[in-house]
């Protein structure tokens, strides 16, 4: 059947009217709805949370409001008001089935793309739905009323022969579903389901298939649009869906369609709905639930009916009846009575970021995502000028390179659908596509999905059932988590503490209170990707929680608690917690709970680095040295072994460590040191001291050549204390780490002072008073996590293949993010500053708005707190961050703050980082104490540091509010450091604040006024003078004089910073994307023309054009800063891969870089730039004129932005070179500009287009 044809839509739907549609969704659902909304003439606007603020998908919205949660009904309605929306689409999940949202939307006179509040309230309540089905004589599973506790659950079980399913009474999606087998512990099942809201129980249908019927209704008439098969599931969550369902008798299909029409007619349903059924092998279909919204799997129905279900929803919301909606949303659909006929077959696979064996959700960054948009046969048909039919692909995505995974949402990396004339062809197309999916970073279910597609059971779906995957194909996998209420394990008491850690990134829903626990008892419940995972005690003991405040997000591997053996000291259970809810290890005497015993170097290193990556390992003489990988990065690691000779260092071990550091520095490989042991080995005397000198010398030589990261896990005493202090970033474990020159015994002997080791050299002292350590963490697992995070800023080797002729150091750029142009989510940046310029605020709130994802890694946060220093990313580029902190001393610089900033600049220089400085300061702190502390000396060093940095690195200084006195000059001002100086309109720049300046400059005039005029007159005079002074301190004055480079609005600042840090030029670092993949054929060609070109087989690009209101427009790509000719506008393209022709390569590159499917294009004529040893072919292609592809996303990371750019005719009747709007003067790619006149003649000419 195929997707609907859209020719003529623009005219019929009246695109000239600008209407705003609030899309109450995120990710791929938001993109899917926005795409069709544009087709129908709506302007899509949306909502985002802080965590999603710079996710790539948000760039498809025309505007957005920030909300705390996607299911906050009041916030959604407020967003609709603030954004001027006239319609609301509820999306999928979240608040989509909330009657209050429907009620609020209708009360606000919004076009509501859903059913009435009354229908929603009834259908989303499973207990009420069961009553309705019974009254309509529709077959359904035996269902309880809302349960009020375990006794009610037990009473219901007595009515059921087999298993019982415990589930939420409201909502769909199988979230938190718990099976209760006969004889299983009902109380355990009940506890596991807590937090879902009201609960019901249903009798489980044995070995049943999961089938669905899609419907559209207008309140009177109900149309069915075929069936779907959704039986391939894990944990009651669908993985593979297809349409239509096969192997289902006509009688069963008719019964399901009749039940669907009967139920929806009864409630006067309006909109799209799905009725879900269970079909036992030897029974009749049972109506399980009604989803009163769009389904994730709607694409398979669209492909076999030709109906755009989102379009139908929006048209019904506008008041159309189903037949009218169908004429527009499915002009090629075939209607037979109240049934839309299907044609062909479609199979969809959900590519989740989960381990394909354990099915545990993954977290972290998507370093790269490659999902084919079309099959090779589709591109070949376009090249040949033939129609594209079946087989073909359809892909929906909401995650792109550089995005962070959010396990709290059940968002697939991609939905990949194979479409064919029949089921075999569709399955083959899907399998071919999955074979080309490449995801770098997390694991995905692709191997499992491909294994599923090749199972004999899938050839005859009559053998499938909802637990086929878990009880059949995956039996024996590490999947069982005892969430079926099977009862307690055999009692035992482990010899040592049992650590309870989160096996995945998730939401902690509940945590057992501190106290005694039994073996097998449920200690915690986690939820991720709509799946619940209970954690149970391995043995009897006493639980000591390490976190609190559930529900709360937890990281993979995060320590949630410990089960101590039964005889543990009860005092340890009640130890106080920190404000964050984490138990404070400093509260108990003795060794840290994080380190109950000394651990060997081998044990620690294996836990830290990537599995199986250790090599060149030598573990002797109380020190381990090795090469390994950490988060995929090559690292050198050395670790003291406290279990051998107390971890003391001898000459042999020291020589090995020094050699390791020197070799790592030569290779630009980061060095990790794990410190826990004594200093120089006393028995070796001067040789041991010489060994310490060798290590310290090697560390000093490596400074500025590679990153050195120190992890202090225990003692670092005597001369060994200098080793961590020489690293670039130092991490200390609270309660266990000690960095000191002399121990308590020596101090007592020499000075008479009685002090313990923690007070003398613990993490608290070095973080708050000495400023030695950059980060403190609660335990060793947290230290490993900190190491992984810090490592993301380490410079790496830059091979000439990807960057420049000469290799060197480069910064690891993370692709993705909000991009180099302003996006809707930037609009809230300015609201962070208080209206009252004298009111303090936390500068970190500004930094989170300006940096990628708000991920500021603050260093030395507890020391010299009037200045904030840290590491972050802006536009994917690692940067050092400096900011004055108005919340502490009004942002005044102290001697310690100046020292902190100066040392941070030195760190940034060693790592090759550009520096962003935020200035809101009244100046250096005045007073006797400040002067005595050395503020002049440290201030002078700060001045020198910025002046020197300006000659070596890219500096950007942002003036947000107060920029006064010597502190303004010192903090990277243009005059001092040559920095790019940006100022918000709220900035005031002067020697001192306006009031103080007036009192100084006009003191005689004011004194005379006080003696001659009334008090009111003096106040009026002073106010006038202050206003005049403030105007002179406004940034416009500094701009005129050249001391401010630009005045920027807060809403455009993030994008401006992204362009500044990624643009090539003097002081710009080399940038290299992490995890980049090369196609066969990528590489530099040394051409006979004397230049180097990219593409061993040549290169190809595509100049895509489409008609617009008057004339035509072309698709341009703003190249990312790390690419060749970064910062210029060109056309999508790249190297011709081995075995490709130039046209196929151009289409493939277009799909990879823009997501625009080749099948919608009409290929035109090519232009060839021929060099002696290389060629570049630019093909032209026409694209559809409707709004479907208005907001293309730069999906591969090589593009900073994509823009449809209108062409203007010259007086001579040709097309002038395109000028992208919003490009801020960004030029065309020189190669494109050079041949534009030759390309322009291949496009429809002005005389032809403008007279149409």
From TrEMBL:
SUPFAM superfamilies: ClpP/crotonase, Glutathione synthetase ATP-binding domain-like, Nudix, PreATP-grasp domain, Rudiment single hybrid motif, Single hybrid motif. This is acetyl-CoA carboxylase. It comes from the Bacteria. Residues 561-602 are annotated as: Disordered. Residues 621-806 form the CoA carboxyltransferase N-terminal domain. Pfam families: Biotin_carb_C, Biotin_carb_N, Biotin_lipoyl, Carboxyl_trans, CPSase_L_D2, NUDIX. PANTHER family: PROPIONYL-COA CARBOXYLASE BETA CHAIN (PTHR43842), PROPIONYL-COA CARBOXYLASE BETA CHAIN, MITOCHONDRIAL (PTHR43842:SF2). GO terms for cellular component: acetyl-CoA carboxylase complex. Keywords: ATP-binding, Biotin, Hydrolase, Ligase, Multifunctional enzyme, Nucleotide-binding. Residues 824-1063 form the CoA carboxyltransferase C-terminal domain. Residues 130-318 form the ATP-grasp domain. GO terms for molecular function: acetyl-CoA carboxylase activity; ATP binding; hydrolase activity; metal ion binding; propionyl-CoA carboxylase activity.
